[in-house]
Request: fold
Amino acid sequence: MAQLVATLASTHHPFYLKATTMPPEQQMPEAPEWKRKIEAYRETLAKTKPDILVMIGSDHFHQIFLDNCPQFLIGKAPRYDATFYNEEREFGLPTYVLEGDEAMSTFMHQHLMDQDFDMAFSNELKIDHSIICPIITVRPDNDLPVVPIYTNIFAPPLPSPKRFYDLGRAIRKAIDEYPSDKRVACIGTGHLSLELGGPRQFMETGPDPAFDNWAIDTLRAGDIDALLNSVTHESMAKSGNATHGFLNFILMLGVAGPEVADYVDNLDLFHTMEAYFTWYPKEDAA
Amino acid sequence: MSKYYVNKFLFTVDRDPEYLRRYAEDPKTFVATWEQSIGPRLNDAEMTTVTALTDEERTALVNHDYVALFEMGAHFFLNLTIFIGIYDEAYMAKSGPLAFQREFAANLQHWVGKDFPSVQT
Reply:
């Protein structure tokens, strides 16, 4: 059977590449530290020598729109184009082509259906920055095939926090039961407290630093009960109107299992708290 | 109210450099064109007959009035991204990074501490 070798959950900041590659005299003061933290985080993946990346992200109205809006969707294609015109314009992100793994996508899709997750699917999926940002940060060579999975964190009504966790558990089960000798890493991105297009956007900190600190401690402890007892769609909206990206962290804890994280780092940037977690499977887990 | 159709305007224009240029340069003419021949498109062959903007929505789009659009429940991501696309460069040149984004936030300060208008469609 395939082996899950690492679970990575992080924020995705679309300006990382631009912020750390512009001429040094124009860079923000935090840029060198940000780059060091990202490179250290990258190593937590590299040392596990993965063969396939299962990647969890959320389309930001790039391919998916309100005329046809799935809650959970899996990509099933031999290759994926990435980065839309408006992401190049706003964030300075380059375009990519990601290799797919149709066999694993097909297995994952069927397995999730068999576990009562009726996933939408796409055979022609163009990937956006929710998956390209972690390629840039943790696998910039873009040398591995991916199985992309999208969640709806954007267009209410959204699935419940528990449903996100349960989907993570189901993805983990599918990886563990994939008949292959491949080493699989699962990488997902989202946000801590975040406001976009509202009165608390682009402040000196994120809109709710107290939530950010609590979320980091609770994820570090792998305390799913505390997360599911406290986090609701309404509580996330109070922490910032785009905080629902936190649901992807809850999903990733489902992939890892309710375990203490093996690697935790964070960085307080202008307008967001960045956070980076890695879990390695325990011998007796799963 | 046709929140969906306002979002469709923001979505279709933000993703197309030519539409965005026209909306930035001459919003009144462009919004009229959009309502006639861009907004109704479902695909290359099909047009919808069931959607339309209200007068209030049309006025907000013509005026680049992101506060009014926020208050109507236009999606926060679309409402921010398109106006960054139009205004960021000029604000940055004049007042530095994030100047437009901070003005946008300042113009919405009366919403701090309140439940925002729902973006659900």
User: Anything to note?
Assistant: DSSP finds ten helices and ten strands in chain A. Chain A has one domain: 3-192+248-265+274-279.
